[in-house]
Amino acid sequence: MIRVTYIEADGTERTGEGKPNFSVMEVAQSAGVEGIIAECGGACSCATCHVLVDPAWMDAVGAATEVETELLEFSEYVAPNSRLSCQISLTQALDGLVVRVPPKQG
User: Which terminus in the chain has less CB density within 10 A, N or C?
Assistant: First the structure.
């Protein structure tokens, strides 16, 4: 199993586990992470699973796709380390990944 640590907007840390090829979003939902809404269910069409990847993990995770970047333009807390968690597939290289959930938009 591959572990992912989520730091919620209020600082609460939750750790979830998933198998290879599960998405970071799917693991977040299983772990009950606040702020990962995933309205589109992982279809990369809503940006409600936005996370900020810990800078130490950016090389391992990789850059956002063009579609992700376009969707993230509508998010309030976009940063160079922004990704849609539905688009990050787990691999053994991501065991221990840390992501932060940005504050709620509004």
Answer: C
